[in-house]
DUF2200 domain-containing protein (Gemmatimonas aurantiaca), 115 residues
Amino acid sequence: MTHRIFTSKVSGVYPHYVTKAEKKNRTKDEVDQIIRWLTGYDQAALEGHLDAGTDFQTFFGKAPAMNPNTALIKGVVCGVRVEEVEDPLMQQIRWLDKLIDELAKGKAMEKILRQ
């Protein structure tokens, strides 16, 4: 069974990421930086996917280069440990959720980007 989020448009969830960040005095640029770090997309490609209404399955499936430091993303999102998620696509989505959570919690970008 395909999870509903897999076929959801990234552009449908993206504004929620930005709102979550901005409520905590973070920026849309920081959200974009996190997405680019995670997926390897450049800004133009990211905006192209948002404009095109790309779903999460396609978005992550076409990602140029998932960051090699994703194994360092640990913790709980929605009661689920991200490092224990078995479905690779769901894990990628959870990684993104976790990074946005860290941004909203005021973590420094260097720590969020595992530098």
Notes: The mean pLDDT is 95. DSSP finds six helices and two strands in the chain. The beta strands are 76-77, 80-81.
